[in-house]
Task: inverse folding
């Protein structure tokens, strides 16, 4: 009896171990087939949808989307001019802008791809002992030539994290090194955290992240995340 | 080619390994562009914190820094600068900076064309052109 039980037990333990390990080691790999086929060179960042109560979220996110994408090797359309162009055409809300037919966007901007960002959380929650500022956002990259979705992802960042390791990967380091923040004059904490979220969301070389663009030395060398 | 070299420990192998490890520290990859506080300038524009003149001064300074260091300014930089010039009524510098954006980033050409066609140009006087 004992001899019969043991192998079964061992098998169970093995199965559990395999299950646990697989949870750590393998994440569902992102299917980049459409992305690799399309290889967009230029990205039009549309004003992000804002699902948070903070009215600053849209432009805070939009103004910090350029650096991670550009350092990843893409041409990024000037977000301020893009916003003005929409306004001059009577489109003032992100929801209206996200509903513009892609053919129209392609015609005006000549962009290969459009980036549709949605801010899910933006702000500070106050608790008795501590307060936390968190910014969470999702993004979809859509080919403006074919209408196909090339990539989608989400990211979050919080003030409660250790500041020294903001987890932005290589692009995160580059952006951090490259950008002078004038925190005290222009920003609230939310804006700073949004910058971190943006780097995590839009920097290439991260697991399941966006691929490097043609202006990066890492172009077409994806698959080996440079961490 | 001696494919077995890696397998046996020796000075060459060690040197290779230490070079690999050290390179992680020494060669820090260079950002593609010189940013200054360009993104903060764009945020300030969105928030209406500053007038275009302040933005122009800040951006021209960043462009000079970039030039001095032999670095490039980021995508959208010169177009944003052009926008600011346009708002101060200097349509010549609006156009000039958009053309500079187009030259640096040909990906922008369709949009630049769109913007330049839309902007009512002050009827240029051929006699006054330099």
Result:
């Amino acid at each position: 009896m004992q001899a019969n039980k043991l192998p079964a037990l061992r098998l169970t333990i093995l199965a559990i171990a395999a299950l646990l390990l697989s949870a750590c080691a393998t994440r569902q790999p992102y299917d980049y087939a459409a992305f690799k086929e399309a290889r967009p060179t230029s990205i039009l960042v549309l004003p992000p949808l804002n699902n948070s109560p903070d009215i600053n979220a849209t432009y805070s996110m939009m103004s910090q989307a350029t650096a991670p994408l550009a350092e990843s090797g893409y041409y990024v359309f000037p977000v301020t001019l893009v916003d003005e162009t929409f306004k001059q055409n009577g489109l003032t809300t992100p929801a209206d802008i996200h509903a513009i037919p892609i053919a129209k966007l392609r015609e005006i901007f000549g962009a290969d791809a459009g980036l549709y960002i949605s801010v899910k959380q933006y702000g500070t929650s106050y608790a008795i002992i501590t307060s936390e500022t968190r910014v969470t956002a999702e993004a979809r990259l859509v080919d403006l030539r074919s209408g196909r979705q090339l990539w989608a992802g989400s990211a979050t960042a919080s003030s409660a994290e250790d500041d020294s390791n903001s987890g932005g990967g290589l692009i995160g380091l580059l952006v951090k090194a490259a950008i002078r923040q004038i925190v005290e004059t222009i920003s609230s904490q939310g804006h700073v955290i949004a910058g971190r979220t943006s780097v995590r969301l839009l920097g290439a070389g991260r697991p399941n992240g966006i691929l490097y663009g043609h202006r990066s030395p890492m172009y077409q060398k994806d698959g080996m995340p440079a961490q | 080619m001696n494919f077995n070299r890696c397998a046996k420990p020796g000075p060459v192998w060690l040197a290779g390994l230490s070079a690999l490890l050290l390179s992680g520290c020494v060669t820090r990859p260079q950002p593609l562009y010189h940013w200054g506080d360009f993104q903060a300038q764009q945020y300030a524009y969105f928030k209406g914190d500053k007038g275009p003149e302040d933005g122009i001064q800040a951006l021209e300074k960043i462009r000079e820094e970039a030039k001095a260091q032999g670095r490039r300014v980021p995508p959208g930089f010169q177009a944003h600068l052009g926008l600011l010039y346009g708002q101060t009524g200097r349509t010549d510098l609006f156009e000039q900076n958009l053309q500079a954006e187009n030259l640096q980033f040909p990906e922008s050409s369709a949009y630049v064309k769109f913007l330049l066609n839309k902007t009512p140009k002050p009827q240029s006087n051929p006699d006054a052109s330099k």
Observations:
- The two ends of chain B are 66 Å apart (CA to CA).
- Chain B touches chain A through 36 residues (CB under 8 Å).
